[in-house]
Design a protein that fits this description.
One of its GO terms (molecular function) is oxidoreductase activity, acting on the CH-OH group of donors, NAD or NADP as acceptor. By secondary structure, the protein is an alpha/beta fold. About 35% of the residues lie in helices and about 15% in strands. It binds NADP nicotinamide-adenine-dinucleotide phosphate. NADP nicotinamide-adenine-dinucleotide phosphate binds near residues 23, 210, 232, 249 and 252.
Amino acid sequence: MCDQVFKLNNGKTIPAIGLGSWKSKPSEVYDAVITAIKSGYRHIDTAFVYGNEKEVGQAIKDCGVPRSELFITTKLWNTSHRPELVKPAFETSLANLQLDYLDLYLMHWPVSFQPSDVKQPRDADGHILLDDTDFTVTYAAMEELVGERLGSVGVSNFSIENFEKLSKTQKIPPAVNQIEVHPFLPQFELVKYCQDHNVLVTAYSPLGSSDSPLMKDQIIIEIAKKNNATPAQILISWGIKRGYAVIPKSVTPSRIISNLHHVKLDDQDLTTINKLIEGKEPHRLGDPYYSWQVDVFGLHKNDL
Ligand SMILES: NC(=O)c1ccc[n+]([C@@H]2O[C@H](COP(=O)([O-])OP(=O)(O)OC[C@H]3O[C@@H](n4cnc5c(N)ncnc54)[C@H](OP(=O)(O)O)[C@@H]3O)[C@@H](O)[C@H]2O)c1
């Protein structure tokens, strides 16, 4: 059991390690969530777009641990950004999850698609159908949900630029920014910005996602040996040592269980891992620019 929690800017707490569920098939995710909760996880991360909220919810219902002890996050998808669609989308997720309330509702991306039953609506040429709803308007509708049925509101895949823009209209500061972070994309500047502005980072793809080269990195392997831990435990511990929540995904029982046991890295290990990226280009696993032609992270200003 990992008892460590981080405090959010509204006084609530979030368990430091959560179970991720992207690409966890509906047939696998029920067992994964049951295994996780039985082995001590109290934080589960899902999203409408993962298509597995129903199975996650059934596992939460069947797990035998009171709802009040669990922290459940799901996310608003891009096709529901128009303000009038936000509450119905939230209600659909609650119904899928069979829950009366959510602990955290995140705007999945600062990108709005046209309303659609398909997750990525496209025209005949295959271009994504973008909508002109601004994310500040979507966020304002999300703020309205905070209360009995929603503990905290937050964002995901937000850059510093987006935070600066949102700060001009927000009534409730986002509690969380869920972003890709691992030693090949350490996000030093964005993590510091979030910490300075009291927004808790939650690291997605903390292990480097599927077929991760990080697990085979010689330095990570050496630090793992030194700490009598697995490479995955080192990657998770690095995030916690940096002061943010981490949501490794697995559907493999032995990995789910071992990922919960983080180690206390010393400062030398922290510095060594921080330096892994020195002299290399950051390696971002997920950039929707290539499929949506939207420059979410401001990395393609010269290409557009
Ligand atoms: N907000 C967003 O836009 C966003 C984007 C991406 C992800 N996320 C969230 O973040 C979660 C984590 O990210 P992720 O799924 O991309 O990647 P990840 O957690 O970094 O890596 C998952 C991969 O690592 C494997 N794995 C897990 N534990 C392991 C271990 N101890 N040893 C070796 N391999 C291990 C898993 O395989 P098995 O499952 O086969 O064990 C899976 O292939 C997601 O599931 C999702 O909840 C959010």
